[in-house]
């Protein structure tokens, strides 16, 4: 009898342990995203303090303008908007011509891109200079290698990072300065190409080393650095940043045939929140709710 009672107690503990594990898994599944958002909200004020101060100063300065100055600014913005609309129409015309030419030549159509809107889920205080987590994953069609962008300035798509590890409801974003990122970039208006993180130097929060640059490249501070489209999951023309410095003749990192420098990133990572993931896989449609 005593042995049977002991056996029943043992099985009871096993059952309670299994139930506790199931409850913990379900709890993590439902509450981990919310906990991550709360953690990101806790650290966000410290990471965005500088940006908040600049925005407040800009607002105070705006109040000092008179009506004539503000009217001129509004008119300038209207002209800029009209220019963007005309360029958009021209781009659509060129896209249509491209489709018709590909059809006549028997070429495959360009890869369709799809956009997944998401937000920053977690800024890890221990690795916030190399990666962070967003609030969508493989359930929305996001895959490793996809490009992540922000669109704060109309008409300009800034590359924020590359998708790393992916889970169903979240994904890791590797920043351009992460040593795991090897990305080809086009320098200025030339056809010359360099590669991020291919130099012996280390990246900082706002600057990334770019190496394997041909010697014939003529450096000009402020030249735009954009993606080449050579990588399968990354479209061409995404702005990475601007050239900030370049090795001079005789420096330690300057070679005979190649040289390196630094790119100043366009994105401000201390104030990121809403982002867009560019993926080649169409996101699944959410199920319709019953009436």
CATH-derived topology of the largest domain: Thrombin, subunit H
Number of helices: 3
State the share of residues found in helices, binned by percent.
25-40%
**Elements, N to C (H/E):** HHHEEEEEEEEEEEE
Arithmetic mean pLDDT: 76
Sheet having the most strands: 6 strands, antiparallel, barrel
The radius of gyration is 25 Å
Tally of DSSP β-strands: 12
Strand order of the largest sheet: 1-2-5-4-3-12
Question: In what range is the share of β-strand residues?
Answer: 25-35%
CATH class of the largest domain: Mainly Beta
Tell me the CATH superfamily of the largest domain.
Rod shape-determining protein MreC, domain 1
Give a structural overview.
34% of the residues lie in helices and 25% in strands. It has a six-stranded antiparallel β-barrel with strand order 1-2-5-4-3-12. Strands 6-7-8-11-10-9 form a six-stranded antiparallel beta barrel. It has helices spanning 2-47, 49-63, 67-105, and strands at 114-122, 131-134, 147-150, 158-167, 170-174, 184-187, 193-196, 207-214, 224-227, 239-246, 258-265, 274-279. A hairpin with a 5-residue loop joins strand 6 and strand 7 (193-196). It contains three helices and twelve strands. Residues 47-53 have low confidence and may be disordered. The chain has three domains: 2-50; 65-105; 113-285, Thrombin, subunit H. With 291 residues, the chain is an alpha+beta fold.
